[in-house]
Amino acid sequence: MTVSQTRPEATATGRAAEAARPRRRPAARRRRAQLTAWGFLAPVVAYLAIFYVLPLYKNLDLAFRHYTIRSFVFGGAPFAGLSNFTAVVHNPTFWPAMVHTAVFVFVSLAFQFSIGLALAIFFLKNFPLSSLLRALFLIPWLLPMLVSASTWSWMLNSDSGVVNSLLGRVGLGPVNWLTSPHWALVSVLIANIWIGIPFNLVILYSGLQAISADIYEAAAIDGARGWKTFWHITFPLLRPVSAITLLLGFIYTLKVFDIVWIMTRGGPATSSTTLAIWSYQLGFGNLLPDFSSAAAVGTILIVIALVFGLAYARLQRRLEEM
User: Fold this and answer.
1) What share of the chain is helix, strand, coil (3-state, %, to 5)?
2) Distance CA 41, CA 36 (A)
3) Which pTM was predicted?
4) pLDDT tens digits for 127-166?
5) Which among 150, 151, 226, 278 counts the fewest CB atoms within 10 Å?
6) Left, alpha or beta for 58 (phi > 0: left; psi -120 to 50: alpha)?
């Protein structure tokens, strides 16, 4: 009787244990999967926190407090609110620097995009040595900024530059490219356009390759040729790639520092001073640095980039809904 009674009980217990095991295994697997996912995300989160979130927080802290050299080292800077931003806006350098930044950014984008698009269309047609020539066009983008800016400084030198030498051979007088208030901003614009063309070429060339050849064949059957094909087929289909190219170019050009600093240092006077150059001058270019004002100018640059980024995201959402 005892043995016959214990066997059903043991069987029921075993069944209950087996029924409980499958429930525990999926939960344990989910926990392991979550831990694995967090393990892969941890380096990225740490990188973003150390190199993006922390510097951004420190910049905002500098912008909204009144820092001196002593308080920068030992702490204890008083809260200043928006007074640093008010002082920056009322500074006589602010609006010229804002205008120079706008001219530098939008003129650079216009020429970089248009020339890059023209070259991308040109290289879309296969011809001998096209790959080699396309690779050579990438050299300005691959060179360090120090090398590129120094090369342009040498080429545009008023006394011994190659550009003035060529102008003299065609009967034109020398131009003070880097020392004239009228030509300094033009000089850094030329250098920046030359450096940024390869980036636009690569991105737009990839976008053109993604357009199906069947669309062009159908357009040719309907009688579309030349500019009609470009304006009604190529350019509309290239719009998403063009938008991200212009956005990245805008953010990159907005914060350009090294080219302008190496070539003109923002001068003569303030004729080529941009917001990025002015921020550096406020923080490190004076015997008594103004860290808070420099951080305020940097925050203004961040806000400008954020506004254009949000505008791009909204535009893309509208295009997707159409």
Assistant:
1) 75, 0, 25
2) 9
3) 0.84
4) 788 888 888 888 888 888 999 999 999 999 988 899 999 9
5) 226
6) alpha
